[in-house]
Amino acid sequence: MAELPPGQLVFNKPKVELHVHLDGAIRVQTILDVAKKRGIPLPGNSVEEMTQIIALKKPESLTKFLGKFAEYMHVVAGDRQAIKRIAYEFVEDKSKEGVVYVEVRYSPHYLANTKVDPLPWNQKEGDLSPDEVVQLVNEGLNEGQRAFNIKARSILCCMRHMPRWSKEVLELCKKYRHQGVVGIDLAGDESLNCEGNPEHRRAFEEAVHCGIHRTVHAGEAGPASVVKEAVEMLKTERIGHGYRTLEDQALYKKLLAQNMHFELCPISSKLTGSCDPDFTKHPAITFMKDKANYSLNTDDPLILNSSLNLDYYTVQKYMGFTQEEFKRLNIISAQSCFLPEEEKRELLHRLYEAYGMILSTAF
């Protein structure tokens, strides 16, 4: 993607981000530094060279997009210092974008370098446990919060193609629910439904029982039926992406009535081939016009070579988003976040003050 044009910071106010992957938001310089320290060869020797290798340059398939992780994940996975560092730097980067609250998600097993068959990036069995990964990410996020005056929480990802991980992900959510982990997610290939992977369903049923918040990647590359499954079977509270929901108008209207939250990622949706590459035809326009409950997010800014500010610029330039809509969507994002109610009220108060709005007694 092109860089944000000079002077085009279109919403210079506090923002909330709910859908961004930690392993898709790593600094290229950090990848180079860690590779050098660990003696791992890379196909590029500079930030510019590695950016050219990692970043998508034109719309591709979601499969091609996911394949980009293979260019660098082996560098940071399983390395204690690297995992803590990327979490800390993530918070710093978000603070520079004007984000005051962020929920960052990741797979503890991938960052632990847990063996997968088939191996997605020629990894070796790691010497970190997923539990240790969560501890390290928490440490990095906590240090970043103290340093940069931003609140950061995490969501742990189950992976559709690795159902045997889901029970452990759920247990980690339970263990660290008062130490920064606010929810559980299901990510990966949407063609792998949960009827065929009951481990996912059981993990989410237990999450409901324990009061753990839930979000699910659905309706990005997969059809509206995947969104329906996420809502009815997994009892999700938010939909990651959800663009294909519009293909089932009955479902869409039902979710609008239920105030379901959609985590939209405009630039990501173009480069993964999930939506029409013409931004003027993007589903976000429909969500905006219908006053739906949604957020704007980056998804994987490293691979997209983008930023949250570029997403805001894009929807303003091509989709007709206004300053008032930016305020509205950030307020409803705060309302739909996974913070405890008291912290949520504090976040909303901060936004209302920054936006020059009268704080409603409802919050």
| Beta strand % | 5-15%
Query: In terms of per-residue confidence, which ranges show pLDDT below 50 for 5 or more consecutive residues?
Result: 116-125
In DSSP terms (H or I, runs of 4 or more residues), the helix count works out at 17
**Helical amount among residues, as a percent range?**
40-55%
- Report mean pLDDT, rounded to a whole number: 92
Radius of gyration: 19 Å
Strand-pairing-aware structural class? alpha/beta
Task: Please describe the biggest sheet, giving its number of strands, its sense, and whether it closes into a barrel.
Answer: 8 strands, parallel
Distance between the termini: 38 Å
Give a description of the structure.
The chain has 17 helices and 8 strands. By secondary structure, the protein is of the alpha/beta class. Strands 1-2-3-4-5-6-7-8 form an 8-stranded parallel beta sheet. Helix 11 (249-257) links the parallel strand 6 and strand 7 (261-264). Helix 5 (80-96) packs parallel to helix 7 and helix 8 (166-175) runs parallel beside helix 9 (198-210). The longest helix has 19 residues, at 130-148. The termini are far apart.
